[in-house]
Amino acid sequence: MSDFSNNDTMSSKQRLKETVKSLPNLPGVYKMLGKSGEILYVGKAKSLKNRVSSYFAKTIEHPKTQALVQRICDVEIIITRSETEALLLEQNLIKNHRPPYNVILRDDKSYLYVFVSTDKFPRLSFGRGKGNHTQGRFFGPYPSAHGAKQSLQLMQKLFMIRNCTNSFFAARKRPCLEYQIKRCKAPCVGLVSHEEYSQDVQAALGFLQGNSDQVQQMLVQKMEQAAQNLNFEQAVFYRDRLTMISELQAQQAVFRLEGEADVFAISEMAGTSVIHVLTVRGGQVLGGKNYFPDGIAPDAKSRAERLSEFLLSFYFQVSDDVPSEIIVSDELDEVMAIESVLMQEFAKKPQIKHRVQKHRKEWLDIAKLNADNALKTQLKDQRELHARFTALQSVLSSVTSNIINRIECFDISHTMGEAAIGSCVVFDQGGMRKRDYRQYAIHDITGGDDYAAMRQVLGRRYAKNPLPDLLLIDGGKGQLNIAKEVLMELGKLDETLLVSVAKGEGRKAGLEVLHFIEHEPMDLPADHKALHLMMQVRDEAHRFAITAHRKKRDKKRSSSVLEVIPGLGQKRRRDLLNHFGGIGQLLGASEEQIAQVKGIGKVLAGTIYKSLHE
């Protein structure tokens, strides 16, 4: 890339300065590289020279940009023939390398879809992303898990279609609880014909496609037929299903129009931006979600520029498909380029609209309303968080001159050495960065050895990942020294500020003490905002670790209960769990019920029952 990279006599800063000067005035993509050649940030530009130079201007005040610039050791570029190529290349590089300063979306989980399989007796389920299933039909996306689960439960109540896995379905010998509570017709044991079940599936598909009127007519016919046959219990069943659909239609009356769209509304105030994404499919609003973009800002960007930047990141990081229409609150400058990039990625060209009328304007108004409300709420929290980071920066000014933006904190959780888990949580000036959280299962150490556990977790974390501005360890001087040794072994001790937060006298909150490697401990007042930030990060690391630990411990204990029963091998254990649907249901079974499982006689059933209950 640069003629200056091999010049050993030139300082790194001078070499970087000369590299920036030599950049061409052409469109393309640039990569900011760190000390070890790792990619810190990827960006696109109409003019590589102008955009990259703007990062090194003295007027830059954005704290995250300042933190990035301090770490830049080199710049690499890829020149493209057009801005469209630059947009596509930028998003692909971000998706592949996930640079720490470049990720705009804190929560980039794929949206949930309701899924109908293509089995002989199809099942209803949901999952994140279309890649979770190989064959079937997908409906959504649903921005919230609650919305997807609510839709799935409604479908089960209305049409009584199974949602169990194929292995569970194949192993059934009698109806499960879903049949008892009238959410499944038990096709697994032949209590419904294939023809009747297929009719229910077709009705469910029609309902998911928005054809609820046809479903309603079908239910009316079945209700009347049941009444004529004097099957009043069945008639009541269909009447209740009609009531459910009527209530749903009343709730969705304003949205019962055709069309699919993603609606983006941006709201800004006091340097904070929020974008609300409203999802409309089949003319119905499936829900919305707020995003708070936190990308690098080398210069002042307009609302439209921020919205354009977010829109591409959203489709490359979160969404599995693109609708026929994209409605935006602000007119974008790069509409044709964005449409072209989405066409190349999804083989489907959407229409990006700014001026809309009638029901589309209603969708946009709803998105704007939600964006404005989310911004007001966020600003309240943001002001407090900013005050805490400012207080921390002031307190640590005697220890480091670096800007504190990214904090990573570690904690270890176990029960008497059992099922040990290490957690890493990440905070920056935008708050919790949950997408960067990590959990580490700890292996091959003496149970209860917290020092060995911390050594293992830190070594695995930073052998490949860059260090944050502040590395926070939950513990006292012992844990701090372990962290110091690990970073020294990795040759990275000078790349971060290492701090441990230890409980104070009586282990009471507010009496914590901060320990440093080369400085005296710091005992802050209980009402100090810097201490509040440390405690907030530390408590989140503890919550994240203990949640994972309990899940791992409980799973291990539930499986180990069956493993110690004599005469109960792996196949029989699997058959037992498949028959009852899990350890919880097995615990509630009688000896007679256990004896009915294939391969389990009365004698072994008695042994199993006693082992589980004694």
What keywords describe this structure?
alpha+beta; 20 helices; 45% helix; 614 residues; 7-stranded mixed beta sheet; globular
Concise overview:
Helices cover 45% and strands 18% of the residues.
Walk me through the structure:
The chain has 614 residues and is an alpha+beta fold. It contains 20 helices and 18 strands. The strands form 4 sheets. Strands 12, 13, 14, 15, 16, 17 and 18 form a 7-stranded mixed β-sheet that branches. Strands 9-8-7-10-11 form a 5-stranded mixed β-sheet. The chain is globular, with a radius of gyration of 29 Å. Residues 1-10 and 249-256 have low confidence and may be disordered.
Q: Mind summarizing the main beta sheet?
A: 7 strands, mixed
Cα shape: globular
- Determine the strand fraction and express it as a percent band: 15-25%
Low-confidence segments = 1-10, 249-256
Question: Rounded to an integer, what's the Rg over CA atoms?
Answer: 29 Å
For the secondary structure, the number of strands is 18
Total number of helical segments?
A: 20
Helix content: 40-55%
Structural class: alpha+beta
Mean pLDDT metric: 79
Cα(first) to Cα(last) distance is: 72 Å
